[in-house]
């Protein structure tokens, strides 16, 4: 017994020493990090818009035969608690909230937002056209964090080939939020595409694209989807203000929905929409970002309801699909209190005309999304944030459900 007690005492001492050493080490690290120069780049260089827009640099680790290969990415740890039940426990997705609300809460610890990318820069061709290729992955592929392809594209001069943000969305107006998906009404999707971009002047550009076909519809079991015609988009962007940092963007979409009905008749319904968006810098500490999109048959482009069959609807006695109209709008305000401390607040609203289409009771009619956060930037590559979110789902039978979420996140970019 004496030896056992001594062994246990020794093990306990080692544990205490390890804990003490860890605490001291963390204190030293925190003190050193906090003592770093509080530069303007701390916050401005690490916003969500900078990250998603690919405006940050990584590490160059090889340069062979005129090709420079860069590695970049970030690790994000999210600690989430929902006070009511929601289907998507990793992102605030109001369409997955049960109706009526259920009081069962849930806690999720996750690193699924983390991502990494390889970027290859080729030497310009004989006409001086730049060449770049990107492969980017995140850990959203499964609950265990399996890699999932995000982007895989080539840029050669004015042309883009591959999977990238749809040209119908504005990829330069991300609100500075920590929640993975962001506003419910965000026009937010990645598509395989062929895009041409023309710079009309230093402050204006125009782009057109043909993007991967496919409808997202609710149809009887005897019907089938077809993929025949690609989606077509066009966008015009005007930059303004100091250093052209602000912009207004207008995009249009034609979305063919191809299908075969119960009579085996091949048909195509055309979805169409516009998207007005912007990123306006009010001062060195204040930004407003917004989106106002409206159209018919374009539900697959919505962050909240993509994959829910809400481009269009057909009942068992119908011969054709009826497109579903959608309004998708949001407004966010970003403010920096100091060079290292910022807050973001905003609201999103998505509305469908499903109540007018005699769809089944309990079909989604509208969703709401609101969030507020405060972020502290220790350096230009490390930040922490606390965020509170609210989501609500409304159905065609006028019943609803909601959820409140608290999230803490730590983010390190490399």
**The CATH topology:** Porin
What's the Cα radius of gyration? 24 Å
What is the global morphology? Answer: globular
- The count of domains is 1
Widest sheet: strand ordering: 2-4-5-6-7-8-9-12-13-14-15-18-19-20-21-22
InterPro entries: DcaP
Organism: Chitinophaga arvensicola
Protein name: Porin
Pfam families: DcaP (PF19577)
Structure summary:
This protein has helices at residues 2-34, 41-44, 48-52; strands spanning 59-64, 67-82, 106-110, 115-122, 131-138, 148-156, 159-165, 190-201, 204-211, 217-218, 224-226, 231-240, 246-260, 266-283, 286-296, 312-313, 322-323, 325-336, 341-352, 364-377, 382-395, 400-413. It is mainly beta and 414 residues long. The strands form two sheets. Strands 2-4-5-6-7-8-9-12-13-14-15-18-19-20-21-22 form a 16-stranded antiparallel β-barrel. Strands 10-16-17 form a three-stranded mixed β-sheet, with no helix packed on it.
Please describe the structure with a list of short key phrases separated by commas or semicolons.
414 residues, mainly beta, Porin, three-stranded mixed sheet, 3 helices, DcaP
Outline the structure in words.
10% of the residues lie in helices and 50% in strands. The chain is mainly beta. The chain has a single domain (36-413), classed as Beta Barrel (Porin), CATH 2.40.160.10. The radius of gyration is 24 Å and the shape is globular.
Topology:
Layout: H1 2-34, H2 41-44, H3 48-52, E1 59-64, E2 67-82, E3 106-110, E4 115-122, E5 131-138, E6 148-156, E7 159-165, E8 190-201, E9 204-211, E10 217-218, E11 224-226, E12 231-240, E13 246-260, E14 266-283, E15 286-296, E16 312-313, E17 322-323, E18 325-336, E19 341-352, E20 364-377, E21 382-395, E22 400-413
Parallel strand pairs: 10-16
Antiparallel strand pairs: 1-2, 2-3, 2-4, 2-22, 4-5, 5-6, 6-7, 7-8, 8-9, 9-12, 11-13, 12-13, 13-14, 14-15, 15-18, 16-17, 18-19, 19-20, 20-21, 21-22
Protein name: Porin
InterPro entries: DcaP
